[in-house]
Amino acid sequence: MSLIDADKCRPDPDEIAPRSPQTGARPSLPPHNRRQRLSVVILCIAPIAAVALYLGGLRSVDLDDHLMLEYQPEVDLRTGRILGLEALVRWNHPVLGQLQPLEFIEVAESTNLAGELGAWVLDTACTQLGQWKRDFRELDLVMSVNVSPVQLVSLDFDVYVKQVLEQYGLLGSELCLEITENVVVGDLQRTRSTLAKLERLGVRIAIDDFGTGYSSLGHLKSLPVDTLKIDKVFVQNLDRSEGDRVIIDSIVGLAASFGLDVVAEGVESVGAVSYLLDVGCVRAQGFLMSKPKGSEEIERLLEVGALALPWNVDSNDARRTFPGDVAR
Ligand code: G
Ligand code: MN
Question: pTM of the entire structure?
Fold first, then answer.
């Protein structure tokens, strides 16, 4: 994982100093272009330095003052019913504004803060689920929480999870821990033993970003995994990419063969919804249904219990109508 997208920061050399059409060589940079290059470098380094400095000082402060969780609903594509929520951490940085995990987790890991950060996320998400369980008794919600490699290999992770579940009156089956494929492969022995202990608590395990990492069929068979979450890169362009459709087909087939649930992430178009329903993938997250939202906005959705879908699906899923469809 990289803190910032290096390609975005790298100035296009042809923009700064186009090649000569005759010789193909670039002229040496005039002074104002050197300044431009320098300012791009500073722009790229400043956020890293700021986050690093900020994290350095974080040990002594209360994480509650700086972090917040947003929640993204997971829905049943046939009905819009909210099946669960994925907790996503955000960092309210005083200078840089709201940061996404990709922008600070690597720094957190390198400053040994990942454990504390992960514990804060798990604790906060479970407190919130405890409250929502009381406020929305009729909903059967599962809270999904991303788990870092550091947490998963810490010796007493299952003890911590058990304590949090008890503290907030949650069943193990109401918590889904998401691990990435590469975590699974990282320390297979330790992962296997931790997952077995979590399984005994009834906690669900999902492999996140599935399809982009290195887990093998052997891992799927030998580890107590419940769910595959298909990485959004295969879902975002489903409506126009034949290659992605083939990948989705195989992942859904794989999940069925192993008796696993499957959730599609990154649903952004009704075309994607249509294809997912065709192949029998009915659980999904994505901007088309809902972006991640703060607690108050989520509460308004939970009051209804379902999202209004921008398409119609009849109960037996035989006829679907999408905006723009011609009448059949
Ligand atoms: O790796 P993980 O699945 O935990 O990543 C979730 C991230 O994906 C969140 O930061 C969330 O904002 C983002 N996300 C969720 N739905 C969509 C979507 O439909 N499109 C895109 N581009 N990103 C999404
Ligand atoms: Mn996730």
Answer: 0.81
